[in-house]
Design a protein that fits this description.
By secondary structure, the chain is mainly alpha-helical. 48% of the residues lie in helices and 11% in strands. The protein has 4 helices and 2 strands; from the N terminus they run αβαβαα. It has helices spanning 3-16, 36-44, 62-75, 84-90; strands spanning 23-27, 48-52. A two-stranded parallel sheet has the order 1-2. β1 (23-27), α2 and β2 (48-52) form a beta-alpha-beta unit. α1 (3-16) runs parallel beside α2 (36-44). The two termini are 34 Å apart.
Length: 91
């Protein structure tokens, strides 16, 4: 996605919800989200508020906890290294 595309998406979002006072958009830290074209659109459309997540925030992503558990409890000890079916059952 380009900055132009993202700005167009924000514009479409704004048009989709014309009666809302504020529209919050949660973002990761992809540079396109903070491109000058996007920041200009947000400045010109104060109903849209961009809310960036902290840099690399795995604690905000529940699936990261699952992957950590899999690494610590299942793959670290490698008891199922030769039996993928059994590994799947354990997960």
């Amino acid at each position: 996605m380009t900055a132009k595309c993202f700005a167009q998406s924000l514009e479409a979002l704004s048009k989709r919800y014309p009666n809302h006072e504020k529209i919050y958009v949660i973002l990761d830290n992809w540079p396109v989200h903070f491109h000058k074209r996007v920041t200009k659109f947000v400045k010109d459309n104060p109903r849209i508020e961009l809310v960036p997540l902290p840099t690399y925030s795995p604690w905000l992503n529940a699936i990261e906890k699952v992957w950590r558990w899999v690494r610590q409890r299942l793959t670290h000890t490698h008891p199922w290294a030769n039996d993928f079916r059994l590994f799947q059952e354990q997960v």
